[in-house]
Amino acid sequence: MNNPAARLLQILTLCKKHEKESGTRPMLMGWRKVFRMAESVSDFAVMEQIGRVYAMVGEVSDLVGRFKDLDPQLYLGWREELGEAFLNLSFRSEFGTFASRLPRTMLVNVEFCSNALSERCPEPMVDSDKLAELGTLATDLIKQVPEADLDEAGQRYFMDYLTLIRRSVTDYPLSGAPALQGAIDACTGTLVTQRQVSLATRETPIGKKFWSLINKISRLLAPAESEDDHQQGKDGQRIAFKAVVRQKAA
Fold first, then answer.
1. Is 2 helix (H, G, I), strand (E, B) or coil?
2. SS3 (DSSP) at 26
3. Residue ranges of the domains in the chain?
4. pLDDT digit string (tens) for 176-192?
5. Structure pTM?
């Protein structure tokens, strides 16, 4: 799933897969099957995920629009039919009333679009085992924050950005690598936007683990890097960090 059309296709395909067994079940129960969400998860959380699936249509449209040689009529002709399916979606109705509006021809057309984006603008891919590892690392660090020797600002800093990382891992099936990259960019950006707390906490035990996690994710998003390239990247990060320190001292 290296582009939003591929992720959309996977979700819609799962909807069709669960149509037979969940078609007569309540709408949100059917979507819980698609998202593999426990019954204990709130209805609001399920509805939020459904809304994000619909938002993926806009992401795909934006990407296709970047390539002037991709005819929207050919690559995005499925949008109107899918839009009708979402517009007629009622949370009080049965799941089958939505899944039945997803014909095989629509899925083929979304796949056609996905193949084009996969060739032209593929995103980095992170396998499920690595994602699980990242999620575990982030969760473990979140549990350590309250007991760490940090002031209130430091605790809030790590809780905010570790939660952001964990959410980007959880949302990977819907958001893909861009969400992970966005989380990493937000964390590294704090060297400038929140330089006082980022500098003060960087060499703490939890700070070292936090930045080690950032580095691990960065490497997963650039798997084609050679060891020399990776070292240059780490050196560049150190240089940037030192520049912030000098600026603070000045």
1. coil
2. strand
3. 4-120, 128-249
4. 999 999 999 999 999 89
5. 0.81
